[in-house]
Write a structure and sequence with these properties.
It contains 15 helices and twelve strands. It is α/β, with parallel strands linked by helices. Strand 3 and strand 4 form a beta hairpin. Helix 1 packs antiparallel against helix 9, helix 7 runs parallel beside helix 9 and helix 9 packs across helix 10. The structure holds adenosine-5'-triphosphate (ATP) and magnesium ion. The site of adenosine-5'-triphosphate has 22 residues, from helix 3 and helix 9.
Length: about 400
């Protein structure tokens, strides 16, 4: 093999070992989440229980659901459907039920020993375009007769616009649970709390187990680095991994992105190990791979022809100490702004910046959500994927070397 071939092969291996843009489907590259996995396993084999997996954008909900689907597929019927905005209760079920084949064998007319097999799916059992929850229950009961336990994953459950979808699903879950139909429904969606996903959720509370997906812990992100580097046949210095974990802020997308860029760089250099010194290079390269939406938001919020403090204030917001809800206050920003600029600014010097970032329709708005009362406002980044990008920009532009 020429060295060019070898570099190509090693590069491909790195690309496959990290997946910044796609959910994980391969168990060997899946890190952590043991508690959520065991909860799902116990729900799936307990009649009458269903689950909802919810959390911030990008924390790893789909990856968990995908890995669990393949784990269940050996012992249960499984189906996975990803909703889109135009979906309705009926279209979602039609898609799911078409995953379950039924075959109907009957004697062919006139030939005693011969049979015909008409293969259709459970979707063909639906008579109406707008089925009721009870009709869905009737069809799903056929799976029980076929001696099957089924686990059905419905992802992006927050997407359908049709207002009735959420209450029809609540009713379906209630009926399936009350009648002990051997089917487990797992809803997956972006939400801060379950009320945003399920209408009248109190009525299904007992039947619906809530699995909140928090951001990943430092240890879980470290596991992503370790597993991925092992799969890519690369060594790494601990300090490199620590910097990656720190800048990722619990979001696995950035861990994959930085490791992939560092790994490719090291391979191009003909080396076997990622050094702490490679971190800055990885950050620079990774910036252009961050989604266009995130990059545009940053640009819009900080663009100016004059010398202004917008970049520094936004960086201080990304660095600010957050509570468990991800919120921070103006005094938290003041402390970090001091670290970034090396100067002491009092709150009035940047209060307008915070107001601009949290305006609804201003040119720099839509970045922060503001809650609370005057002088006690708390802020939160609306897009969780933005702060790590701001930290990366700050680092590359030399605004800070210290990232917290
Ligand atoms: N447990 C995990 N181990 C390793 N990588 C993970 C894990 N969970 C998620 N990831 C990675 O993180 C990124 C985001 O994951 P995923 O798409 O599953 O998140 P999500 O919560 O479904 O996002 P969205 O809210 O946009 O639908 C992907 O690059 C995925 O590969
Ligand atoms: Mg997802």
């Amino acid at each position: 093999m020429t060295s060019l071939d070898e570099t190509f092969t090693r590069r491909t291996l790195v690309m496959r070992s990290f997946s910044p843009s796609a959910p994980i489907a391969d168990k060997t590259l899946f890190a952590g989440r043991t508690e959520q996995m065991s909860t799902l396993i116990s729900i799936a084999f307990q009649n009458g229980q269903h689950a909802v997996i919810y959390g911030e954008r990008g924390v790893g909900k789909t990856s968990l659901a995908r890995v669990m689907k393949s784990a269940f597929s050996g012992s249960a019927w499984t189906s996975y459907y990803t909703c889109s905005s135009g979906d309705t209760f009926g279209s979602i079920w039609r898609n799911i039920l078409s995953d379950f084949p039924i075959s109907d064998s009957r004697p062919r007319a006139g030939f005693a020993k011969d049979t015909v097999t008409a293969t259709s799916t459970l979707a063909d059992m639906l008579r109406d375009t707008d089925p009721t929850p009870n009709e869905i229950r009737g069809v799903l009961e056929l799976l029980g007769e076929a001696d099957g336990n089924a686990v059905i994953f419905i992802d992006e459950f927050d997407r359908p616009d049709a207002p009735s979808t959420r209450s029809l699903f609540a009713d379906t879950i209630k009926i399936l649970s009350d009648q002990a139909v051997p089917v487990t429904i797992v809803l997956v969606g972006v939400a801060d709390n379950i009320d945003e996903l399920i209408a009248e959720h109190m009525s299904v509370q007992r039947a619906l187990v809530q699995i909140q997906m928090p951001r990943m812990t430092g240890d879980e992100l470290m596991e992503i680095v370790t597993q991925g580097m092992r799969s890519a046949n690369l060594g790494f210095e601990e300090e490199f991994a620590k910097q990656v974990v720190r800048i990722s802020q619990g979001l696995p997308h950035y861990t994959h992105l930085l490791c992939q860029n560092a790994g490719v760089y090291v391979v191009e250099q003909g080396r076997e190990k990622v050094h702490a010194m490679d971190f800055d290079f990885a950050v620079t390269r990774a910036l252009s791979n961050v989604s266009q939406t995130v990059r545009e938001k940053y640009h819009r919020a900080t663009f100016s022809n004059r010398e202004t403090l917008y970049r520094q204030v936004l960086l201080a917001c990304a660095m600010a100490e957050k509570d468990e809800l991800g919120t921070f206050s103006a005094p938290d920003v003041r402390d970090k702004l001091c670290e970034v600029t090396g100067r002491r600014y009092e709150i009035p010097a940047f209060a307008n910046h915070l107001t601009d970032f949290s305006s609804i329709d201003g040119a720099r708005g839509g970045i922060l959500a503001k809650r609370g009362v005057l002088r006690r406002f708390r802020y939160r980044f609306i897009d969780p994927l933005l702060p790590p990008y701001i930290l990366m920009k700050g680092r590359v532009e030399g605004l800070t070397k210290e990232l917290s």
